[in-house]
Design brief:
Belongs to the glycosyl hydrolase 16 family. By secondary structure, the protein is mainly β. It is 12% helix and 39% strand. It has one domain: Sandwich (Jelly Rolls), CATH 2.60.120. The chain binds 2-acetamido-2-deoxy-beta-D-glucopyranose (NAG) (2 copies). The site of one 2-acetamido-2-deoxy-beta-D-glucopyranose has 8 residues, from loops.
């Protein structure tokens, strides 16, 4: 508790604007793909592509420690079977933290799977998977991560789909000490992505392309051990203390009841000795 308080005090006193209404040129570097990733429209949009030779990816210039981070993504249309579009936050090293969205492609007309996971101190195995309630290839949709000292909330178009609360009091580690970069990549994973690897990538349909726009981060940036947070009005930094209100809890229940297709917290085969501690409190 005291630790969280200290972190908050540090955050509040470190005044420097880190809110950015995204420009891909300013906020990101293309990290791989030999020309297959492109920043377009003066930084207003970005595309990743994948062909038989290579996928592609980009990474944020900043490291972040807490924030409300939104990205609009339009996924690979048509036959995207075998492809994976990953969008995630991660730090480095064997005890890294990570917050993942991964979109598993499918045959035309068959549903994508939104795969999520959370690593803390290098330990993951917290998969939850969902179908979406819309076709994510027809238009851009907003995928958000709210990450503050109390909780992590994954949202899709403003609807929360998953929460990972800070349960350090129950011995579950929580990401709060390591800055994370934002990463995204499009690659071939036809050994597992679609129907568990049964459906392979159809390379006659390549190149496969995913598009990004309207990146927005209300976030604290992290650099050599120092956190810098937005010094806007208290309202605008309310993400720092935000938690799920009752409407949010109803929405999460709705999503989990109607669209969740896998939850590690219900996988008795995998955890015959009992579920991880965060499962009972989630
Ligand atoms: C692809 O479509 C099949 C058939 O509807 C479905 O079982 C599967 O969950 C879908 N998604 C992926 C990524 O395999
Ligand atoms: C901050 O929020 C309060 C309550 O929601 C509202 O009354 C006030 O006008 C807001 N202030 C600003 C600067 O937006």
């Amino acid at each position: 508790m005291t630790k969280i308080f200290l972190v908050l005090v540090l955050l509040v006193f470190n005044v420097l604007v880190a809110t950015s209404a995204g420009n891909f040129n300013q906020d990101f570097d293309i990290t791989w793909g030999d020309g297959r990733a492109k920043i377009l429209d003066n930084g207003q949009s970005l595309t990743l592509s994948l062909d038989k030779t290579s996928g592609s990816g980009f990474q944020s210039k900043n490291q972040y420690l807490f924030g409300k981070i939104d990205m609009q993504i339009k996924l690979v249309p048509g036959n995207s079977a075998g492809t994976v579009t990953a969008y995630y936050l991660s730090s480095l090293g064997s005890t890294h933290d990570e917050i993942d969205f991964e979109f598993l492609g499918n045959l035309s007309g068959d549903p994508y799977i939104l795969h999520t996971n959370i690593f803390t101190q290098g330990k993951g195995n917290r998969e939850q998977q969902f179908y979406l309630w819309f076709d994510p290839t027809k238009d851009f949709h907003t995928y958000s991560i709210l990450w503050n000292p109390q909780t992590i909330i994954f949202s899709v178009d403003g609807t929360p789909i998953r929460e990972f609360k800070n349960l350090e009091s129950k011995g579950v580690s929580f990401p709060k000490d390591q800055g994370m970069w934002i990463y995204s990549s499009l690659w071939n994973a036809d050994d597992w992505a679609t129907r568990g690897g049964l459906v392979k990538t159809d390379w006659s349909k390549a190149p496969f392309t995913a598009s990004y726009r309207n990146f927005n981060a209300q976030a604290c940036t992290w650099s050599s051990g120092t956190s810098r947070c937005p010094s806007k009005s208290p309202n605008e930094s309310s993400w720092l203390t935000q938690s799920l209100d009752s409407t949010g809890q109803e929405r999460i229940k709705w999503v989990q009841k109607n669209y969740m297709i896998y939850n590690y917290c219900r996988d008795t085969k995998r955890f015959p000795q009992g579920f991880p501690p965060e499962c009972s409190a989630a």
